[in-house]
Amino acid sequence: MTPGLVLWVLVALGVLWTAAWAFVLVRSRPGPGFDVIEPVENRLRLRLLVIFGGIGLLVFALSLHAYPYPRFRARALGAPTETISVLGAQWGWSLSRNTVPARVPVEFVVRSKDVNHDFAIYDSSGVLLVQVQAMPGYANRLIYRFERPGTYTVRCLEYCGIFHHIMRTTFVVH
Amino acid sequence: MATSASPYTGTNGAVLRAAIGYLVGGFATFLAMGMLGLLMRLDHAGILVISPDWFYRLMTLHGAGMVGAVLLAALGGLCAVVSQWVRLSARALWIAFVAYMTGMGLVVVATLLGRFAGGWTVLHPLPFDGRTWSLAAALAVYGGYLFTALGLLIVCVTLLRGTTAACGGLGGALALRYLVSPRSRPQAGLPRPAELIATVIAIDGILAALAGLIYLVPLFAEAAGVVPAVDALFAKNFVLLFGHTMANLSIYVAAGIVYAVLPVYTGRPWRTTWPVVFAWDLIIVLMLVNYSHHLYQDFAQPLGLEILGQLGSYAVGLPSFIVTIVGALALIYGSGLRWAVPSILIVLGLWGWVFGGLGALLDATLPINQVMHNTMWVPAHFHTYYILGAAAFAWAYLYHLLAGLSDVPGGRGARIAAWLYGVGAAGFVIMFFVAGAHSVPRRYAVHLPQWQIYARVAVPFVLLLAAALAWLTVDMLVRLGPAWRRTRVPLA
User: Fold this and answer.
1) What is the DSSP annotation of B326-337?
2) Minimal Cα–Cα distance from A101 to chain B, Å?
3) Do B214 and B149 touch, CB atoms closer than 8 A?
4) Which of A99, A168, B16, B24 could form a disulfide with B487 if both were Cys (CB 3.0 to 4.6 A apart)?
5) Domain termination site, one of A13, A34, A64
6) ipTM score of the complex?
7) How far is CA B450 from the centre of its chain?
8) Which residues of A touch B359 (CB under 8 A)?
9) What is the CATH number of the domain that holds A154?
10) Is the dihedral of CA B161, B166, B167, B169 positive or negative?
């Protein structure tokens, strides 16, 4: 799901909720007694529990397919054919190579030399595609397949000190 | 359920004064931290230039201060509410207040004088490896957190002692017998919703404070050279179990206030029904398991904890929405709701709690988190259920308490200011969401020119919010003196 689509989902859900909220406020003038409303409330609660509980489980089940962890990504994209080592350090990135093949699964092995960083890849139009933390003492494996050639930007998305915002680099997908 | 016109009859005036201290202290801190927030948004908009050093120091102080402020105010409100039926120790509350404010003072000193800029989440080992601040500054912040956790612990123990004594033990305060045997509803003896919530909060507050200790002790040991470097993943788990739970506590504490105040304005009781007991008892567990959604991008985290984070995040929303939000809306529907500053802030808070919760639920969905984590989407959702949730509920109670004690009800201007608070806050947080959807990173001192538009649109809304708050502040200051004096005469 792209970030833009996530916003539209929020807008849709937000409009539904705001409409329900406004409806209740408009109907807050004296009306039926609470003895009439309470049984309706209890039935509504039960229905909402079933509906929202069901939706939650369904979304969870569907989301498993798109988990970003190596075993899930390798299953979805295939075993990586290229490996790129990434080292984050205050306040820069070093990649073992700065060219990456397009349309094949590649693996980034991300480490940190000092503090926590976050290896986030932006496409040429500034959209965040994927990310993984760079943690001291750990190597996190991120598998991804770039569909389009072009220049991609790496930004740090975990606050790492006062020059955090300049911690960026680029690589080329060809 | 008490909904009489004189709700504080018989209440210990000393406890009310402590509660007012918490609420006013929290509100004043909120205003000060809000000013820092405005400065940061002006910087994002390109209207004001703040050096990165100062930006991140202000950011650290703003985050720690806001979490501390809203939780403090909400705790004060909840203590005042339950003190109507539960005996609390005013002395313990003041001791906790001193500990809490000492902790916050240490953070102020460390950031403003010690140049500490490690972020309020103090992700280890950054505080020890910041390059621009000293180890002493980092330890001052950790010491500050220790004092704050101590203050929280004292308040929670005080609340727990009070509710368990009033309800015949822990089982009674959590209505456990009724929970397992719903058909045997006792005629009397069930805790009021606020008492039940205070018990739940106290249990999770104590556990959060203990998580803080488990986190902080090894770090002090590392600083002293007693142990080698603390594992980054261990530290991250415990700092988030501590910090995320503290931040979450604010909204649940404030929700407890809603259970007590909304009936006053709707004229309808909020009873301790089985769904209320089930939902709140369940929250004891759910509040502690969903912190892991902050570690989705830490691929080294065990998969089970990541799944627990996602399921726990979904699950914790269910009781809150189905019981508290639906319950509040049912209370309002057809009630002839009396529109006043507190009731306006509460309905705004209901909107914001759900809207912010929707943003949080989306972000808690693991594949979505891949493209939203640590973008502006994150401050978007928690600012929403802070400003338009926990804080709105806390200020509603502060206004309600001061107006009730001083016997000076709010005027039309104040009601307009309360609505403008909602408009300003909504515009402000929506621009965070929009920026997040455009992949703008959070915690950046310098925003690229193409990112500045979101902050530029937000700034007028922040100014509107500030104006509304200024109006409400003056309105409450007028009532503060008479309300304080009222607590000094027997409340009978």
Assistant:
1) HHHHHHHTTS--
2) 22
3) no
4) B16
5) A64
6) 0.96
7) 33
8) 10
9) 2.60.40.420
10) positive
Q: Residue holding tokens 């000393």?
A: B14
Cα B335 from Cα A133, distance rounded (Å): 51
In this structure, the answer to whether residues A49 and A80 fall within a common structural domain is: no
Tell if the CB–CB gap between B125 and A129 is shorter than 8 Å.
Answer: no
Q: What is the pLDDT of residues B146-178, one digit of tens each?
A: 999 999 999 999 999 999 999 999 999 999 999
Residue A101 and residue A38 share a domain: no
Report the gap between the CA of A22 and the closest CA in chain B (Å).
9
Same domain, yes or no, for A76 and A95? yes
Q: Do A49 and B322 touch (CB under 8 A)?
A: yes
The whole-angstrom distance between A14's CA and the closest CA on chain B is: 6
Asked if B236 and B124 count as a contact pair (C-beta separation under 8 A), the reply is yes
Helices (H) and strands (E) in chain A, counts: 3, 9
Q: Which of A64, A84, A113 is the last residue of a domain?
A: A64
Segment among B19-28, B40-49, B81-90 with least mean pLDDT: B81-90
pLDDT reported for residue B490: 66
B220-243 burial by CB neighbour count: b if 16+ within 10 A, else e? eebbeeeeeebbbbebbbbbbbbb
What phi and psi values does residue A82 have, to the nearest 5 degrees?
Answer: -130, 145
Residue A101 is encoded by which pair of tokens? 């093949």
Q: Which residue of A has its CA nearest to B363?
A: A6
